[in-house]
Amino acid sequence: EVQLVESGGGLVQPGGSLRLSCVASGFTFSSSSMSWFRQAPGKGLEWVSGLHHSGSMTYYADSVEGRFTISRDNRKNTMALQMNNLGPEDTAVYFCNARRFVTPTYVYWGQGTQVTVSS
User: Fold this and answer.
1) pLDDT tens profile 53-70
2) Would you state the pLDDT for residue 105?
3) Degrees (nearest 5) of the Cα angle 73, 18, 62?
4) What is the C-alpha separation between 5 and 113, in angstroms, rounded?
5) Separation between Cα atoms, residue 108 and residue 4, nearest integer Å
6) How confident is the model at residue 104, as a pLDDT?
7) Dist CA 37 CA 4 (whole Å)
8) How far apart are CA 9 and CA 51, in angstroms?
9) Quick one: DSSP state of residue 77?
10) Which residues contact 56 (CB under 8 A, 6 or more apart)?
11) Which residues of the chain fall short of a pLDDT of 70?
12) Which pLDDT value is given to residue 55?
């Protein structure tokens, strides 16, 4: 059974930090491109950050560049998102995403973890 389980969300004050984690199982994690997406209240899904299956290349949305850092550990089948200098605009449900672009292709999603930035 494929699973992506996020954790680490919560309530944090503006300027604070959180570290999200995603634990994967049931598929070949090391062959998957991984990403974080988020969905703010009343808004659509927004891509936040992604990284190559080897972790050698990372990508960020302009809105989080310089504040968020994505990483992965292929030995532990985990991915993380370190979020610093958080603002109210970062309030959203954050989702872990796994994708493989070559055969066999797939897209998997986690259930999400809530991040709320408020004083």
Assistant:
1) 888 899 999 999 999 999
2) 92
3) 80
4) 9
5) 8
6) 87
7) 13
8) 20
9) T
10) none
11) none
12) 81
